[in-house]
C-alpha cells in the first residue's frame, strides 16, 4: 500500500476525516500500485484522468485518448505545469494487512499506521508519466475535457477538481 505526500517527515499516519470527504468515518488512506499514477501530482493540483477498460468502446478511446495515446490519459491545466515540474512528492509504503478496500481505487485503515520505512522521493513527475506510458495532457481549462470523459465508456477519476479554473462559458 502506498500514500503520497509532499511532507517527508511523517512518522505515524493518524485516521482523520478529510475536509472534502463524503464519509464521516476517520481513515488513513492508501492506494495500490495500479492506482499510484493518480497521485504523481502536487497534492492540490486538479487532474482529470481516463483509462480504457474492457467496456471501453473504440470510438470513445479514439475520441478521448487519441491515436498513439496509449491506454491512459491524465490532464492538468497550464497553471499547474510548473508545480508539476518542481514539486517533490514522496511515497510512503505500508503493510497491506492494515488496510481494507473502499470502493475500487482506495484502501483505508481505521487505526494509526506506521510507514514501513522512510518515504522515497517519487522523482520527476513528468518522467514518471512518460516511463509508465501515460499520456499527460496540459490544457487551458479542464472542464471541457472532463465533460467528455464522464459521459464516455472510459473509466475515469477526477481529483481536486474544485481547484480547477471555473468552466468557460
UniProtKB/TrEMBL annotation:
* InterPro entries listed in its UniProt record: DUF6886
In terms of superkingdom, the source organism counts as Bacteria
**What's this protein's name?**
Uncharacterized protein
Amino acid at each position: 500500500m502506498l500514500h503520497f505526500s509532499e511532507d517527508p517527515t511523517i512518522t505515524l499516519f493518524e485516521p482523520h476525516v478529510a475536509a472534502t470527504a463524503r464519509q464521516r468515518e476517520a481513515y488513513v488512506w492508501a492506494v495500490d500500485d495500479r492506482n499510484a499514477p493518480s497521485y504523481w501530482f502536487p497534492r492540490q493540483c486538479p487532474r482529470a484522468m481516463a483509462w480504457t477498460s474492457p467496456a471501453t468502446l473504440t470510438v470513445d478511446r479514439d475520441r478521448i485518448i487519441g491515436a498513439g495515446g496509449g491506454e491512459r490519459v491524465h490532464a492538468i491545466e497550464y497553471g499547474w505545469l510548473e508545480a508539476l515540474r518542481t514539486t517533490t512528492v514522496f511515497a510512503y509504503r505500508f503493510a497491506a494487512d492494515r488496510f481494507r478496500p473502499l470502493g475500487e481505487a482506495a484502501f483505508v485503515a481505521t487505526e494509526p499506521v506506521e510507514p514501513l520505512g522512510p518515504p522515497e522521493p517519487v522523482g520527476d513527475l513528468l518522467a514518471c508519466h512518460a516511463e509508465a506510458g501515460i499520456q499527460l495532457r496540459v490544457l487551458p481549462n479542464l472542464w471541457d475535457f472532463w465533460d467528455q470523459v464522464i459521459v464516455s465508456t472510459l473509466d475515469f477519476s477526477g481529483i481536486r477538481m474544485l481547484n480547477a479554473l471555473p468552466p468557460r462559458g
